[in-house]
Amino acid sequence: MGIIRNMQRVHATQAAAEQRANTAAAQQRDLIRRNADLAIAAAQQAASDTERQRERRRLYVDARNADAAAANAEIRARLSDLDTLLLSTLDVDDHIDLQVFKKPVVVPPFDPGPLGRPLPEPRWDSYVPPQPRGVGKILGGDRLRQQQTASARRAYEEARARWVEGEQRRKRQLQARRRQYEESVRKHEEQMAAYNAEVDRFAAAVAAADPASVVEYFAMVLGNSVYPDDFPQHFRLAYLPKQKHLLIEYHLPPIEVVPIVKEYRYDRIRDDLTAVPRDEGEIRSRYVEVIARVTLRTIHEVIEADRGGLVRQVSFNGIVDSIDRRTGQFVRPCLVSLKTARDTFAAIKLRRVDPVACVKHLEGVLSPSPDELAGISPKIDFDRDADRDFTEEFNVLAEIDERPNLVTLSDPAWEQQLADLFGVMGLQMGTPSRTGAGVRWVATDPRPIFGGPVVVFATRGPAAGGAAVHALAGAVSAAGATKGILVSLGGIEAEAYEALAGRPLELIDGPALVTLLSNYCRVKARIELTETVTA
């Protein structure tokens, strides 16, 4: 029933997009962005003559301040999305009525086209020669008329024979077209009947608690749950029919979904947006709340969608795919585990709970240091406790989402994506040079006063630390550049911001890059880690 899951997912995505578009944070962000665009346009339109240079500089400063305000609005919108992860699903009916997927048999009427119109039949009246008159009648007119009549008769008969042949051909073609239409209708009705029968079969199998069908149904439910773009939405499900027990192993987003930047400020001296880093304690606290909200949201959606009493107990393991910064190795720790009865969970008023406290109240286990990928002992061993015959893995984004995954792009595609982005943002990109750690460009900022060479370095390896910042600063100095930009898809450590020390450097992590691609290039990208991470 993959096609049903895809159709339902598209509908849910559209509904969630409309809901997010109406949020106050989104409206404020759009307003600030419009003001920024207006300020930039005003700066570009200012006269370049000497007398108006001061006004031009003032408008430029306004534009840069508007850029900072727009960037800060993006951060606030992101935090709003994270804070409402649980509340946003409570207004959605997660139950899926499978009968709505049945398709009516709509058959268009038969259209014969030109074949439905008979050819015009020749008329003898149009062939009869005129009667001879006057002198022509006296001078052998009757004989001439007989000759003309005989000739006209032959022409008429030939035309009528052609008409009869044409009509017979038309009728044969019309019959063939009608047979083709009837065959097409028959095939269409058979297809619709088979499709609707499959929907009925699937609905009956779900109602009868067929394990494979139950797993498929709840996969559709969780696939409808629309998260921010950089959330993985990858999970495994297993159903134990005797215990009416649903097991969920859910891939959590990495800690990089929490903005590492607290706010941006425009520095007039350096003509740069300075990033103020967010406190590590706040990042850890917010990430724990994200984990708790995803856990409660997933269980809520399963229970609310289950109107047939298929599930009496739910077990949830939340795992994360990441890179251990200490070893550089791919790891998959379990950061949260919860096992709860349906009745116990249904009694909770989710609108009023503290997510972390609620998970602990349900005797769930949360990692004390998820930012350090400190795993916990799960309450269930998914592979041991699940019946493998009734287990299936789902990757919602990989199945239906065509957004490019920045992690798995080929090196040329990755480099072209960045070159396009910074080109749209105003830089003239040079030829990329690859190193063992990533790829580097020496670009040019064409602005007459604040422009100059810019060093851009991008890596898809582990989170960038202070060493990466020092290396970029050295490259900027060696190139005689005015600014450096570091793009680190794997994230940016706090020590990297400490290493800035007033240097003209800009740090961009994975989520920030996804936002820039969306805003400037209209590219909806995603970040989904795999076991092999390309530098």
TrEMBL record:
The protein's name in its UniProt record: Restriction endonuclease
Span of domain Restriction endonuclease type IV Mrr: 412-517
Keyword terms: Coiled coil, Endonuclease, Hydrolase, Nuclease
Coiled-coil regions listed: 164-205
InterPro entries per record: Restrct_endonuc_IV_Mrr
Organism expressing this protein natively: Paractinoplanes deccanensis
One Pfam family per UniProt: Mrr_cat
Gene Ontology MF term list: endonuclease activity
